[in-house]
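[09:14] KT: can someone run the structure on this one? pasting the chain below
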Amino acid sequence: MRVHQKQMAKRMAILFSFLLLLGPPTVVGQNTSTSQGDSNVRPPITTTDLQIAKSARQILDAPAKWNRADNRECPAGAKTFSLYCALETATVQVSGKAEHRGAALQEARFVIDEIAGDRNYEHRLMNYNNDPTTTFADVQEVLRVVEWLITMRLKGRPNTPPVAGATKPAITKSDIEVVKRTRQILDSASKWDRHDTQDCPSDARVFSLFCALKKADTEVNGTFDNGGATISEARRVVDETASARNYKARLTDFNNDPITTFADIQKLLQAVEERLTKRLAGSTSKP
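[09:31] RB: done, structure tokens below
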């Protein structure tokens, strides 16, 4: 599938920001300051840090386990975990002690700096976790990128980072129009194509979730942006509602999943419209 030039430019910008985040290759065991007072210290990486990152993702692998009201207190025996507490708990489990400025926690802070640097958080992990605009999919994405960054630092070289959902595109009124139009296109079960291939002919009479979003975006904006706000938010909703299914192509696999119903498709699009409307209202109300 040909990727639109605007999407490529956006992805290159995100890629560049994460390559800057990765920085020069760090030698394992290199001496750097680990002062607890330095909020931007970058400790040397070991394989233990990679184990911590993987363990944090396992601890926080379902929306039911997410505590979105973090106070940076992580009691033993907790059943739910904030982003901070997932990382701290993983650190204790793997290394035997808490380490507030450990490498995994620091990499998570740096990821948040990249994706939400304009929000001026006092405590990056806690405030990002508690931000009303942060979704469970966002938290998962932070942990995924952290694991990638640690892996790359251990290898001593950069590579293409997994940035598919790391940044939320800005919301405009046209994004709301796109999701409304998508709901019109898929307003009855007879119009639903549940065998998506991401091949969307212009004369189609039935539409998969992906193709309905593509058609709506093209009609509203004159072109299709595969990294646009509406389709990105749809992927986030799939991440939250079907995270255990390990989809590779989220919209296609969700659409084609035998257990997905037309009602599920409608609920997803309704959730996308509500979220985008809320985000747009929040962005326009800021001074």
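[09:33] KT: thanks! DSSP finds eleven helices and no strands in the chain.
[09:34] RB: yep, looked fine to me
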